Automatic annotation (TrEMBL):
NCBIfam families: lipoamide_DH (TIGR01350). Its EC number is 1.8.1.4. Binds 1 FAD per subunit. Residues 49-59 have a biased composition (Basic and acidic residues). The lineage of its organism: Eukaryota, Fungi, Dikarya, Ascomycota, Pezizomycotina. GO terms for molecular function: dihydrolipoyl dehydrogenase (NADH) activity; flavin adenine dinucleotide binding; RNA binding. It is an enzyme of class 1 (oxidoreductase). Residues 112-121 have a biased composition (Low complexity). It comes from Epichloe festucae (strain Fl1). It catalyses: N(6)-[(R)-dihydrolipoyl]-L-lysyl-[protein] + NAD(+) = N(6)-[(R)-lipoyl]-L-lysyl-[protein] + NADH + H(+). Belongs to the class-I pyridine nucleotide-disulfide oxidoreductase family. SUPFAM superfamilies: ARM repeat, FAD/NAD(P)-binding domain, FAD/NAD-linked reductases, dimerisation (C-terminal) domain. This is Dihydrolipoyl dehydrogenase. The keyword Disulfide bond applies. Residues 23-70, 111-133 are annotated as: Disordered.
Amino acid sequence: MPTVHHTLNEDLSGSSSKLFASLNSSAQGLDPENAGTELALKGGTDESEASHSFHETKYRPQRQTENGSMPKTLLKQLAQDDAEIENLERKLGIRKGRRSLPRAFKDDGLDELLGGVVDGDSTSEDDQGKRKAAYDNWLSSKRRKHNALPESSTERDLGNMLIDSDCESSQHGSSNHPEMRLDNFEPKRRLCNAPDGVEREYDDDLTKKSDGSFEGFDDTSEVLTILQSPPRPRENPYVAPTGGINLAKYIPPSKRHQEEGKKDTELQKRLQGVVNRLTDACLISLTQSVEGIYQSHARGKVTEILTDAILAQMRKSETLPDQFFVLIGGFSAAIYKITGSSFGSHLVRRVVREFSEQYNYALTYTGNHIRKEPSNLLTFLTQLYVFEVVGCTIVFDYMERLLDNLSELNVELLLRVCRMAGRLLRRDDPQALQHVSNVLNVAVSRIGYSNISVRTKFMVETIQDLKNSKAKAKGTESIIVSEHVLRMKKRLGELKTQSRRLDGLTPMGIRLKDIEDVDRHGKWWLVGASVPEYRDAAERASLVSGQAKTTLNEAPDDEDMDFVLPDFPNKAKAQGLNTPSQIAIFTAIMSALDSEHGYRQFANLRLKRDEQLEITRVLVQCVGSELHYNEYYALVGRQACTNGRVRFAFQNRLWGMFRGLGESLFGGEEDDEETMEGERMKNDRRLRHVAQFYASLVADGSLSITILKPVELPKLNAWSSIFAVRPSSWQQQSLPKIASSLMPARWSREFASVSEEKDLVIIGGGVAGYVAAIKAGQEGMKVACIEKRGTLGGTCLNVGCIPSKSLLNNSHLYHQILHDTKNRGIEVGEVKLNLPNFMKAKDSAVNGLTKGVEFLLKKNGVDYIKGAASFVNENDIKVSLNEGGETTVRGKNILIATGSEATPFPGLKIDEKRVITSTGAIALEKIPETMIVIGGGIIGLEMASVWSRLGTKVTVVEFLGQIGGPGMDAEIAKATHKLLKKQGMDFKLNTKVVSGDNSGDKVSLNVDAAKGGKSETLDADVVLVAIGRRPYTQGLGLENIDMELDERGRVIIDSEYRTKIPHIRCVGDVTFGPMLAHKAEEEAVAVVEYIKKGYGHVNYGCIPSVMYTYPEVAWVGQNEQDLKNQKIPYRVGTFPFSANSRAKTNLDTDGLVKMLADPETDRLLGVHIIGPNAGEMIAEGTLALEYGASTEDIARTCHAHPTLAEAFKEAAMATSSKAIHF
């Protein structure tokens, strides 16, 4: 076997050597055999050494074709040879890199036969080191020569140097050197035997002449093909090899700014596109897009470009709409919430700088009109404040500066601030607003009130009204803007679900002076920046030095300043209130305008739970320190007692005072603090004031009379007796008697307990009310629900949704039996309608459901009170019981859920007989011959469908150009109109009702074309008024608590359903949003979660609407006309029920499914269905919208067959690609 191995290596080495020697000899006229021998022995070794060297390198030609790949035949041949050689090596036990033969070879005497192979590798290490050193010296000299050559010379003589390399390298080592390996050997265009110093290239023709010398060499035919192929580009051996890797083009630093400029341009286009596409609906998705851009680009560059894009919208000479500022301000706040103060700080600084430039230019502008750029920028800054990017300080700073000069420009800017954020400024810092008002008075007095313009007088009145919180000031803010702000804050609330949202991010407390002095003090508001100890040190030093120079005659002015601006911290310390929380509470209470304001300021301190309890110490200390008893502290304490922990703290402090006065309660002794408290209480005036303070809290129910239970009244000492018992001037009545005499007489009924304060009192037992009550009961809260109707469920369950659906379903069955059974092969005899029993079925369903709801309230521990509720104050609700008498319920939290009522038509008196609302439409005693429905919305069309099926001739009068209301898609509305008209209903669109008269036998209506035209008179037996609904707030006593309502009578709330009084909330039809039962139900759950857990969720973009006519119509999301108006790109896909197998089998093929999707992301934007069971099918679309699904997601979801829901899938397929069955 060793002999075979040796022979194989010799054959391979010899054939390869002869192959390339033949090539050279053909070019030079040499004998191939001698040339091959010369090549093999060039390094001064014998043939066996050359053979072994060849074996070690494993000859693999790397010659490639033009496209950089080797022929498959050659690769296969080489792989086969390598496999055979490795197989023989494995059998012989020879491992790669081994420097000696195995011991078994020596034992068998085979080492002498393979001695040449071993000798080839037995070269001494000294010789190898010398050869490597000589080779390194030679290679270094060649590289030095290469670097010394000019660039053009290097390129021109590259081939010559390659020849020189191959010729000279053969004299310095064996074929193991990289330059001598056969895979780098390229005989074409080389002359190795040229004389020294002669360097020349072959002519291409010489190579062609040598082709004949390869005839008959079967094993090398593929090699010949490679050698004849066009040459590949050469690499310079004196520089690092590239290894065949395509490297990126090198760009000098001086030219790299061009590439960066291109990238910046692309980034600018992307961010500008985001700003251009900005809408309410796309806010969250565009914010996520910007977040992705931040992650893939330099944050500073993105911030700079995005800020430029935003401010570019403000540099316009015309006044921009208020809604635009709300939108762009909300977007900026969204970016601030996910990126942090780095973006917010940069944006605010740029706004301040831009405003300064535009304002200075506007002052020098000589045109006829006031430039609007400063107004736009300042309005944008106020929106950054509204959406909590900055605090109110910077806005007040601007207001104070603008009051220095009451020019027309400054007056306009001040009015813009008051309009966009006036009430919010007063709520956040009434003291600052008071200061602004004082500065305004000084400025006006300086000019003279009679000398200022009418517009300036209006501005003065506006600020004064804001300061005094007058009702007139409520009109300073646009209702449309308020609603938009509310919607935008709800959108921003959805960012809570984003994983990269920065929790705990508060408004930046930057002052205007901080931004202007950023070069001196730095950006202290950024995360990680150092805060200067006193940023106004220079001003303070100047002030102190000025005070030192004041004369004694000026001292009274300083005393007056102490009266105008008291030093509350020092006054608090003088009262023994030393902790930061006590000082803060003292300042909040003492600086308030009234008790409500005081408690609101205390609540806004956002103190920790334990720190909140310090209000008991502050109030007791303050009431005892007054010269005369002040009821103000008791009013504040009454509101504070809505917190159970504070209520217990008052009780504990009372017991501590008794122990400090020497009483032994619960067998314990007083501690040091109680001892000090007792010493302070041993003052007759303080003792009387504190006792009256506690008596007041007990009298109004804030504290229970049981707080005196541990006190043994007959055994009190002298000081305790003064506290618990009135002196002779008080007619010797004890504290319990004082409290009981102050308590109003109250009636109680059933579950309601007058002595217990409820965690939640709900006014209204409709869908929102009873759902909130059940949810709160499940959360372990003490709940009372007040409903005056006598049955739970409200309008929806009693006279709305539920009874109307019973009539709709049964009337459809009646109509189908009359007109559709013959087509189905069912013959029915005479069919009669029994209207009383028809109505009885409806009443039966309603009674069962109302009793079920009442059972659920009892099951969850809810106190159900039947009566009419009205506010006595912010915590007490007076209830006029249905059974007679009154009761009062007190709650820590109060929820208004009184719902809505039908809007009457002017000039027509509703009698529910001939002129009816939806309530009368479900209770008619006979089927009218004719009916006119005023209003083609959902309610009007549903009731019209019922009576039209029962035989009434119905005419619908609608002011708009389509039925179904503005929320219904125009294409769906058109299809619905066609189908209902086919069922026998008449429509008069674009028609308005001018007047009505019900004095005759029939009700007459005078109608005109909405756009002008001929008048006509319509007569009918019954007229149904269905022009909408309005919030129901009558008799609630909202004026007693100064509740804020908009011009439509809706209660104004914030994003957490809070009214202006934080513990009073409002949900359902009585506030904003669509008047839908399921929307109210979602809000009811969310508001309880806000009260109990601090968070809740309602996605107002995913609230479905359903019209239960036949066929049903349902939709969710945006419609096509809204997308067109907002210029939002979209893609449409539709699928008709006529192509659905289940609809075909049911012989019910009217209608279609329509989907709208984003053309770029394929995200679902809206779903609109008209057809059988549309109300059930829309749930899938609502779920898809809620979770941001694409139409492809829906299309790839398996739907059962055969079902109507397959039409939903096919519509999704038609939107994303193509439907299968249509």
